[in-house]
Write a structure and sequence with these properties.
Layout: E1 16-22, E2 25-31, E3 38-47, E4 56-57, E5 68-77, E6 85-86, E7 93-94, E8 99-100, E9 109-119, E10 127-129, E11 139-147, E12 151-158, E13 163-167, E14 171-173, E15 177-185, E16 193-196, E17 201-206, E18 217-224, E19 228-230, E20 233-240, E21 242-250
Length: about 250
Amino acid sequence: MNGYRHYAAACCCGTVLAVMPTAGVHQVHAQTPLLSPSLGAHTLLAQSEGLGISPAVTAPIATQPHGSSLIVFNGGYSSASAPPVDNYANRWKQLGHTVRYGNGYGDSFDVKAYLALSAKGGANHTVSIAKPDQAAGEISMPFIEIRQAGVLQDVAQNYPQASLVMTSGRVTTTGPAALVAVWWGDGGVKRMTAVPNNGFAVIDSFLELPDNSGVQCAVAFKQVRAAGTYDVSWTGVPVQGAILWLFAFQSG
């Protein structure tokens, strides 16, 4: 499990004016409101084996012009190793290390996470990933916006052994936060379920795979109002291993 606290800080906050009467004189003070990060636009591109194209491009979504953080995952062939590119010229940084699939896949498949803090956005926002060696190969690409999020407060990644219930690492927050959990199953199955607990709700998934195969994935979200330590357990059927991620974003 890898933990990364206070990954970066950049926040676009407005101000409110508070009028404080003192001895008959009105004094005006600027107060910075505490913004709560929230779920923004999101999508998941899934290309099945033999039917993919290069570059793989997500469906367009409408992101905020400023103040959001963005996550993109690349789950598929290891040869697709270049960082993502988006049409708002954001700078994407790989978060943590590349996680290779076990369960007999060798070095052929892996999952990589990328982050853009304080990102630029707008209408028809897309992200693309080049696939130079396996253009027709399978790939799954979640693309998630977290609004009013200038800080990746904490993140955990682990790869539990196959079990009916698998639990993520823990993340700790110091205030209101947006939590994003991602599940990547490693079983050679075409139909499965992946259900999170602890108040997380699935927002995107690719769990009903076609006969020509694909990369199974599920993304879940939870908003918390107070400081604390959080994790999530996934119940997956049929039993298999899974690569798990958990992010905690704060406004800064």
